[in-house]
Design a protein that fits this description.
With 334 residues, the protein is an alpha+beta fold. The chain folds into three domains: 162 residues, no CATH class; 37 residues; 114 residues, SH3 type barrels, CATH 2.30.30. It contains nine helices and 16 strands. A five-stranded antiparallel sheet has the order 8-7-4-1-9, with no helix packed on it. Strands 15-14-11-16 form a four-stranded antiparallel sheet, with no helix packed on it. A three-stranded antiparallel sheet has the order 5-6-10, with no helix packed on it. A hairpin with a 6-residue loop joins strand 14 and strand 15.
Length: 334
């Protein structure tokens, strides 16, 4: 099917947070995809096939997203949602452990009545023959030295969401509330923080440094100062262990001026969890670089904590819910 033919299909379900949906069969979903295995430039990935026929609730309406590839700010997405319990397991992408929340186009879903019987997933022989195309399209052209490069929803988000969403676009804040993503107070807080950060940026451009408020830093006022190589620590944490995230000042003491520790970033969203306890969910050793599609292997594994997700407080209520990676030096056993 060509993209022009896809664009003529009905698209809008008007889904909101909490709505119950059923993921369509592989036959129905593949019928919406173009020759690249995409709908509106958003890939349908092999990892998503396991959800066909399942009933899930809408966790967030994905009407916008933050650009973590080019740093252009917020981008506009259409007709897409995140579903509860649907994250990428990386099985078709070299075992990537980023665990991104999957994007689901509304064309791939149907509304269902909770009392109605569940569909039985099935696929025709023709569809089974076409499924390998999803695997083929999960790879990019090899790199200069022949290394494997991957293509996934995260690497292609700038194509799937090509339009920048200005901070001053008030419609996004209305949709944040009407979709059920967040409440009015959360919108007001995010708008206030965003406005403050923009004022700080302007002040650094037009005022002498002695007049900058709190050194012109963004809200939460994170500032690292390690010169040279940043320190490291090893706890050999294992899944199931309970840890406490260190205080903010202790973590800042391990960061350089770019808020990096050995290349791993610490940001305002992560600082919200400082001082809290959490359970270790996994040790992360592999993740795909969104910019290049290359698989990165970490010299020092990072830690993922259960139920510790980016809330989007400092990124205008972005609904992506990233899974933060934690250096072991930022944690301590309880």
């Amino acid at each position: 099917m060509t993209q022009a033919e896809v664009d003529t299909r009905p698209t809008v379900l008007g889904l909101k947070v909490g709505d119950l949906v059923e993921v369509r069969s592989a036959d129905e979903i593949l019928a919406t995809l173009d020759e690249r295995g995409e709908l509106e430039n958003l890939p349908f990935m092999p990892e998503m096939l396991a959800f066909c026929g399942q009933r899930l609730t809408v966790k967030k309406v994905a009407h916008k997203l933050c650009d973590t590839i080019g740093g252009s700010g917020m981008r506009r997405m259409t007709n897409a949602v995140h579903l509860t319990g649907s994250r990428c397991d990386g099985s078709a992408h070299g075992g990537c452990q980023t665990a991104c929340s999957l994007y689901w186009k509304e064309q791939w879903l149907r509304r269902v009545d909770p009392a109605s019987p569940t569909s039985t997933p099935s696929s025709s022989p023709e569809v089974r023959c076409n499924l390998p195309i999803l695997e083929i399209n999960s790879r990019k052209e090899p790199g200069p030295e022949g290394e494997v490069r991957y293509s996934c929803q995260a690497t292609e988000l700038l194509r799937a969401a090509p339009t920048c969403l200005p901070f001053r676009d008030l419609g996004q804040y209305v949709q944040d509330v009407t979709s059920g993503n967040v409440g009015v107070l959360a919108v007001l807080r995010a708008f206030g923080i965003g406005l403050f950060n923009r004022m700080q940026n302007v002040s650094k451009k037009v005022l002498p440094q002695r007049l900058w408020f709190r050194d012109g830093l963004r809200w939460r006022f994170l500032k690292g100062g390690v010169q040279g190589r940043t320190p490291t620590g090893k706890l050999d944490l294992q899944p199931g262990e309970v840890v406490r995230i260190k205080p903010k000042d202790d973590i800042l003491a391990t960061l350089d001026e770019n808020l990096l520790n050995r290349g791993m970033g610490f940001d305002e969203e992560m600082s919200l969890f400082c001082g809290r306890t959490a359970v270790v969910q996994a040790r992360v050793e592999r993740c795909i670089d969104e910019k290049t599609g290359r698989m990165l292997t970490m010299k020092s594994p990072c830690i993922v904590l259960e139920n510790v997700l980016c809330k989007g407080v400092y990124s205008v209520n972005c609904p992506r819910e990233f899974v933060p990676f934690w250096r072991e030096i930022w944690l301590e056993r309880v």
